[in-house]
Amino acid sequence: MGIRFTKMHGIGNDYVYVNGFAQTVRDPVALSQKIADRHTGVGGDGLIMILPSDKADVRMRMFNADGSESEMCGNGIRCVAKFSYDHGLTQKNPMRIETGRGILTLDLKTKNGKVEQVTVNMGEPILDLPKIPVEQGAAGRQSLLVKKSEHAYAIAMEMDGEPLVGTFVSMGNPHAVFYRNEVTDIDLARIGPKVEYYGAFPRRINAHWVKVHSPSEVTMRTWERGSGITQACGTGACAVCVAGVLTGRTDRKILAHLPGGDLTLEWRQSDNNVYMTGPATEVFSGEWPESA
User: For this structure, is 238 an active site residue?
Assistant: First the structure.
């Protein structure tokens, strides 16, 4: 008997989901590499396991398309909540989900017994560089990072002849946020891997390029650690919200336009937590040959 799966996406950030309440996957690393392949597999940005938890209502484990395990996925966790509610794993609302980031709380907006929108309390952003982690050390004689202001650092590489200046935020996973006047012309396939594997990021990094339209609206594009170019990144959108406040570019509540759709983000002063609201969509289900 093969592995039963469900394909889901959050504004185009698509993963293959496996119900770990009903079946066991012996090697999720190998499975993610095969099943996420867009030519020979189901296709997706990776694999997400929905598992029992002794601490919360369900547990989420997320594997990128290259097999690496990440702490969190903001779009993925909304889909975990939808699958868990719609398929009867739990009817809790708010729902608590255990992740590599800790236990997060999600408010579900339902229609006709199905989840349509989810607001996730993504927790407090981590801004201390060593905890992100980001290193300010040196590579040979060249400094890896040069501090330009309180929350902006120049990376020792250029993009289109200009220094690459980023703001770093962790939402349980590491993010670099770069601001530009335009983001449609960026060659992500070229610059993305260089940033992801740059020497200042010991656990690699998710990279985002952002255009600010107004204090309440941005457009962003993403190179995601372990998956490459993706249609959306929920934790990245949260990091963009935080970076905008830190650098004085945007308000605490913004609408972010991503290639796959829109997310609403709010970094609340009341509890210092970031809240993300967006949809979750189930596409289809199937069975993957266990021997594959």
Answer: no
